[in-house]
Amino acid sequence: MIEEKGILFILSGPSGVGKGTVRKELFDQATELKYSISMTTRNSRPGETDGVDYFFKSKEEFEELINQNELLEYAKYVNNYYGTPRTYVEQTLAAGYDVFLEIEVQGALQVKENFPEGVFIFLFPPSLEELKNRIVSRGTESSDLVLNRLKEARKEIEMMDAYDYVVVNDKVEHAVSKVQSIIQSEHLKRERVAKQYKKLLEDEL
User: Fold this and answer.
1) Which residue stretches of the chain have pLDDT < 50?
2) Does residue 18 have a known ligand-binding role?
C-alpha cells in the first residue's frame, strides 16, 4: 500500500481578485482538503474556537515562535500578529491530507522561502479594469484607497514568476475547476509517485 503524503497548496493573488470566494467554493466541493489554520495574537471573538478558527497566542508566545522559525509566514496588522504555523501544516501533510492556504502575495513569497516544496497558484483577474470594478463594488474603500490597491495589484502581478500555476478568475466555477485539476495533476507527478514506489520496493525486498 502506497502511503502518500499530502501537498501544501498556496492560493494567492492581488487584493480583490476573489481568493476567498474561490477557496470557499473549492471547500464546498472538496472534503479531503484541510484549510491551513492561522495563528494570531488578537483576542478571540464570540463563537470562535482555539484550534478551529485560529490558534490564539500571546504576543510573547508568537514572537518566540518567530525566533524559532516555527512560522511559514507572518505579518502584523493593527498591532496584532497573524501567521501560518509550520508544525500544524507539517503534521497535517504527514497524516496524508492536502493543506490549502489562501493568502496575500507577500505572505506567499515568505512561504516559498520557508517551504519551497509547496505548490503556488496565482489567481489572476480577467483585467485590471475588472479588478478595479471588484474593489469599487465592495463599497468599503475611498477612491484614494482603491487607487493604492490597484497600484499594489500591478506590483503583485509582476511577482507572478514566483508561482507554479496561473488561474484566471473570470468565473468562479471555472477557476475552481482549474484549481481542482492542478491538485489532481500534482498528485500524479512522476517524481512524487516515484518516491513512494521506491519505498514500496525497498519494503518488499
Assistant:
1) none
2) yes
